[in-house]
Amino acid sequence: MEYVSLTPTLSVSRLCFGSLTVGPLQANLPVGRGAEVIAYAFSRGVNFIDTAQLYENYDYIKRALELAGHPDVIISSKTYAYTRELAQSAVEEARRATGRDVIDIFMLHEQESEHTLRGHAEALEYLFECRERGIIRAVGISTHHVAAIRGVLKLGLPLDVVHPIYNMRSVGIADGDVNDMRAAMEDAKAAGIGIFAMKPLGGGHLIADAKAALDFVLDTPCVDAVAVGMQSEDEVDANIAYFESRRFPEKAAAALAKKRRRLIIEDYCLGCGKCSERCRQGALSTADGVTVCDNDKCVLCGYCVPVCPVFAIKVI
Ligand code: SF4
Ligand code: SF4
Q1: Pocket of ligand 1 contains residue 25 by CB under 6 Å
Q2: CATH value of 263-315 in 3.40.50.150, 3.40.1190.20, 3.40.50.12780, 3.30.70.20
Q3: 269 lines ligand 2 (CB under 6 A)
Q4: pLDDT for 162
């Protein structure tokens, strides 16, 4: 496993375990089963895991840490908090629920521009205070927007990391294309900010072209590490093999070729439109009480799932 310095004090495996996929918003594996998959990744040298307050999967990570004998892994989480109180609550929840005194990386979730950054200034200030106190080791943002990284640079925010969506077909980049995102990432990197990219496979859209898609991200010099969603030991093995040798084991290549993930809306949908309002990719539309998903636009982020009052949305 290759390790890189994401920040001056954080050495991480280049492969980051994207944990959205095991939890309630996606595969919804039983906690014990999801924890086994995560613990397996830890045992194979993955020392970096990405989560979020929204994902509701801290219990998976806590169990995985127990199963793996409390290895020294880097946990990254994020929150939509915009006030000091909400940020404090988010940090305390992460510490309590993962059983960790220190959360290595804490980010503002889904930032869009300098304007949303300004709107979250109180929360960000609290995260910086936590960094001073040693409760957090690094502060950052996650984003699908080029303008968010540009905003960080314009405002001169002392961030340690950014976590942008980045893939070869620009899937999910909300306000530009992959060249715009790479240029912003390069400028952030030059300003001393570590970059860990998300969704190299475009949330599943690029699985048929997985080798080219992963090569594209891994060969981008400013990208330090890459978060990849995984749901099984086989997927862990496949991604580790690819990151180490740029080859998928034969069995994994065959499984990947068959794998297709998609979002479905169950027929007991109420047509309330809450999910359409939540989706920032414009993938959902509700008209006359009927909601449909444009799978070409959906990046399978799962963010619409928790707003549904009747649990009618599934990512399968
Ligand atoms: S439809 Fe849901 S899963 Fe798909 S991009 Fe929108 S919020 Fe994400
Ligand atoms: S939030 Fe749920 S019930 Fe409402 S439109 Fe979306 S899928 Fe249907």
Answers
A1: no
A2: 3.30.70.20
A3: yes
A4: 98
